[in-house]
Specification:
Chain lengths: 99, 119
């Protein structure tokens, strides 16, 4: 299963991802979930970035929070737009989840 | 091209899940996909007509009307709407009202499904 997961919150205890074992995992950070891509706590990046997954963050939700691609702290997180989300859902993944 | 079904069970007033669902619908339609949008729970607030648009406040009536004119298929959960006092005569023109089986039917023959849960 190729699963794309939307993370829409900045809660740190998202253990659902620990229980998911797809053959391919994509994580799209949206809404307050974008803070996982921009914020360090106690000098460490979010543990959300520790999964073996392809990472994306929604540009519009960065911008509405006064952030930009320059604030993304890990280069493996790709900045994308809504149109890219559609392409990912239809071309790269077959199932989706919302956390 | 394919069909995308989005189920949005937006919870709190001010939740931006509905905004996300509408913008994703627009992006998918722009790429030629067919989109069904199902709203349930507090998400049914999107089905009410004559909402006033305030600055810095999410207002989806206008974009929703534009998308429906281009073929977006929007259905609200009738029970969720009625339980919130959103009656048929309050409903935005073009938004249909059915029970949950409409959503299941739409999801059944969709190429992709995104179920956006409530907070």
């Amino acid at each position: 299963m190729k699963l794309v997961t939307f993370v829409s919150d900045y809660k740190m205890t998202v253990d659902t991802l620990d229980r998911l074992k797809p053959e391919k995992l994509g994580i799209i950070l949206v809404q307050n979930g974008v803070y996982h891509a921009t914020t360090k706590e106690n000098g460490k990046p979010s543990s959300m970035l520790n999964y073996s997954a392809n990472y994306y963050v929604l540009q519009e939700d960065l911008e509405t929070r006064g952030l930009s691609a320059a604030n993304v702290i890990d280069s493996k997180v790709k900045v994308i737009k809504y149109g890219d989300i559609v392409d990912l859902m239809f071309n790269e993944y077959d199932k989706s989840a919302w956390l | 091209m394919g069909k995308l079904t989005i189920g949005c069970f937006a919870s709190l007033v001010g939740s931006t899940n509905l905004d996300f669902a509408v913008k994703l619908s627009a992006a998918a339609m722009e790429k030629g996909h067919k989109v069904d949008l199902w709203v349930s729970g507090n998400g049914t607030m999107i089905s009410i007509k004559d909402q006033r648009a305030f600055k810095d406040y999410s207002s989806l009536e206008k974009p929703l009307k534009e998308l429906m004119a281009k073929g977006l298929n929007v259905t609200a959960c009738e029970a969720c709407a009625e339980s919130r006092g959103y009656h048929a005569d309050h409903t935005l023109e073009g938004v249909k009202r059915f029970s949950m089986d409409w959503y299941l039917g739409s999801a059944f023959d969709a190429d992709r499904l995104l179920h956006i849960g409530g907070e």
